[in-house]
Amino acid sequence: MKRKLLVAGNWKMHGSLKFVDGMMQELNDMLPAQRNYDVAVFPVYIHLHQVINNKPAQVLCGAQNLSEHDDGAVTGEVSAAMLSDLGCDMVLVGHSERRVMNNESNAEVAKKFAQALKYGIQPILCVGESSVERQSNQTFDVVWAQIKAVIDEVGVEKLGQGVIAYEPVWAIGTGETATAEQAQEVHQFIRSQLALNDDTIARRIRILYGGSCKGSNAHELFSMPDVDGGLIGGAALTAQDFMAICQQADILSQGV
Ligand code: PGA
C-alpha cells in the first residue's frame, strides 16, 4: 500500500509579512479541509509565528534549519526547543543549499536530525547527488552515505520517525527535473538499503522527491511506487502553482 503523500513547500529565503498574509489567505480559501494527503510549508524563521497563527487547520509548518546545540552562546542560531515552543511540526535538515553554502557535513546534519527528534519535531532529511557525482556513477554511494550518517547517529528506528527527501542537486531550481524513472530508481534503492536494516521502517518511511517539481510533472512523479510526495521550491511560491501540485496529490490519494 502507498504511504500518505506529503506536499511540502520550501519557501527558502523568500517572502515578507505581506507575502505570508496573502499565502495564508489563499491556502485557507483553496485547500480542501478534507484531505487524504499532508501539506506542509517551510518559511524563514522570522515568518514561522505568522504562518503558525494563520495557516489552515492541518497544514503543517516547519523551519528550514535548526541548531545542533541545545542552547547557549551560539549567536544567530535557532534551537529545536525554540521551534518546538513556537509550535513547529517539522524541520528540514541537510538541504543541499546548506550543505554547499554552509559546508554542512553528513555528521553535522545527523546531529541536527537527532536534535529535532529530541524535541518532538519531525525532521525531513534532504539527500541528493550533484551532476558530477551522477555522471561518475556515484549517486547511490553519495545518497547512502548521507542516510548512513543519520543511522549511525540515531539508529534506523529513529530515522524512521523522520521523512527523507531525495533532491538531485542538478534538478534544484534548474527547471531540469529528474524523470519519474530516475527518481523511482533512487527511491527504490534507498528503500531496499533500509530494508537490509529494518524491513518495516523501509516500507513505512516517506521518501519525497524534490527538484523542479511542478503541477505538470507532479502526477507522474508521485505515482511512482516509491515516491511519496514532493519537496517543492519555486512552485511553492505562488498559491496557484502550489495548489496545482496539491491537486495531483489529491487525485492520487482518492480512495486511499
Ligand atoms: P525547486 O527546489 O523546486 O525550486 O527545484 C526544491 C528544493 O530545493 O527543495
Short synopsis of the structure:
The protein has 256 residues and is of the alpha/beta class.
Key attributes of the depicted protein:
12 helices; 8 strands; TIM Barrel; 256 residues; binds 2-phosphoglycolic acid; globular; eight-stranded parallel β-barrel; 14% strand; alpha/beta
CATH class: Alpha Beta
Question: Which of globular, elongated, flat, extended, rod-shaped describes the shape?
Answer: globular
Helical content band: 40-55%
Overall CATH architecture: Alpha-Beta Barrel
What value does the average pLDDT take?
96
**How many H/I helical runs?**
12
Strand portion? 5-15%
Q: Distance N terminus to C terminus? A: 9 Å
What is the strand arrangement across the widest sheet?
A: 1-2-3-4-5-6-7-8
Characterize the structure shown.
There is one protein chain. By secondary structure, the chain is of the alpha/beta class. It has one domain: Alpha-Beta Barrel (TIM Barrel), CATH 3.20.20.70. It has twelve helices and eight strands. Strands 1-2-3-4-5-6-7-8 form an eight-stranded parallel beta barrel, surrounded by six helices. It is globular and about 45 Å long. Bound molecules: 2-phosphoglycolic acid.
List the topology elements.
Layout: E1 6-10, H1 17-30, E2 38-42, H2 48-54, E3 59-63, H3 80-86, E4 90-93, H4 96-101, H5 106-118, E5 122-127, H6 131-135, H7 139-154, H8 156-159, E6 163-166, H9 180-197, H10 199-204, E7 207-210, H11 215-222, E8 229-232, H12 239-253
Parallel strand pairs: 1-2, 1-8, 2-3, 3-4, 4-5, 5-6, 6-7, 7-8
Helix pairs in contact: 5-7, 7-9, 11-12
